[in-house]
Amino acid sequence: MSKANNLPILVTSGEPAGIGPELCALLAETSQAKRLNRSLVILGDADLLETRAKNAGIEPKWQRINSLREITASDDEAPGYFLLDHPLSAPCITGKPNPANAPYVLGLLNLACDACQNGTAAAMVTAPIQKSAISPHWPGFMGHTEYLAQRCGQSDVVMMLMGGQMKVALATTHIPLAQVPAAITRDSLTRTLEIMLHDLRLYWGLPKPRILVTGLNPHAGESGDLGNEEFDTITPTIRALQAKGHDVQGPFPADTLFQPKYLQNSDAVLAMFHDQGLPVLKHASFGQGVNISLGLPIVRTSVDHGTALDLAGTRNMDAGSLNEAIECAHHMDLCRRNAQ
């Protein structure tokens, strides 16, 4: 494999009081790095991660490093697991997030994001974070997707989850339900769908992506009886993209769209808000799903679950979503490079 294709994937360990440290330790017990022929670098406080691994009876096969420069780029290097030490900002009690560690959590994201942007890493995969522990330090913090968009200087990003043979993207993400109708405009929908079309081609090699779009209201508005957003905003946006030759269809009632007879003829679904599309996908694939940020200049994937504070400090957890997120990031990077 060429040097460019063998850049490492970085894995941020997330909220230190949550299950991220144990998930990363479980990851480093596997042979995934060897099978992918790709080194995996876990970012976190090395003493914390090694102590938590020992307490949980996990035996990770990683090598401590202090800089990405310590990983050589020679073609014959055997891929493996590395633990890049990034010290905590404050003491950490398992299961009890400390807002004083917000700079530490954001520092992990900054380190991984910057390495992907400057070409020293292929992709970043994120373990879960605790938003409530970050917002006191970073007012208005909404999550990984929005933070990384700001870090990368991108005004438009799209959150998409993949699992259960589905890809479901969101027109709006982490905002109150009452704010959703006003946030859905022709311009915002057009940009979201354009990002989906572009990235489905780039990262999945689909020459003409097929996207199904839900309505906002029950029964997609019931011909206007249950709302006008479909007539005023969603349908005109779809028609305009169709006129440009894109395979975008809808709006469909969300309560009947997620069934095989529709999904088998599509590549992705665009749902209007968070709890319209994600419950279906998570029911089909929870613990094996992947959260993907579209529209960024880097590859970023994540797990489909939260910090599970009650499970932190044990090994009573499933690392399947983290493994799937790494697989997805690896294949997205390869597909992107093959297209260049």
From TrEMBL:
It comes from the Bacteria. It is found in: Cytoplasm. A divalent metal cation binds at H174, H219, H274. The keyword Acetylation does not apply. Substrate binds at H144, T145, K282, N291, R300. Its cofactor is Zn(2+); Mg(2+); Co(2+). InterPro entries: PdxA, PdxA_fam. It is an enzyme of class 1 (oxidoreductase). Keywords: Cobalt, Cytoplasm, Magnesium, Metal-binding, NAD, NADP, Oxidoreductase, Pyridoxine biosynthesis, Zinc. One of its GO terms (molecular function) is 4-hydroxythreonine-4-phosphate dehydrogenase activity. It catalyses: 4-(phosphooxy)-L-threonine + NAD(+) = 3-amino-2-oxopropyl phosphate + CO2 + NADH. Transmembrane segments: none annotated. Homodimer. PANTHER family: 4-HYDROXYTHREONINE-4-PHOSPHATE DEHYDROGENASE. The active site is located at the dimer interface. Catalyzes the NAD(P)-dependent oxidation of 4-(phosphooxy)-L-threonine (HTP) into 2-amino-3-oxo-4-(phosphooxy)butyric acid which spontaneously decarboxylates to form 3-amino-2-oxopropyl phosphate (AHAP). This is 4-hydroxythreonine-4-phosphate dehydrogenase. It comes from Limnobacter profundi.
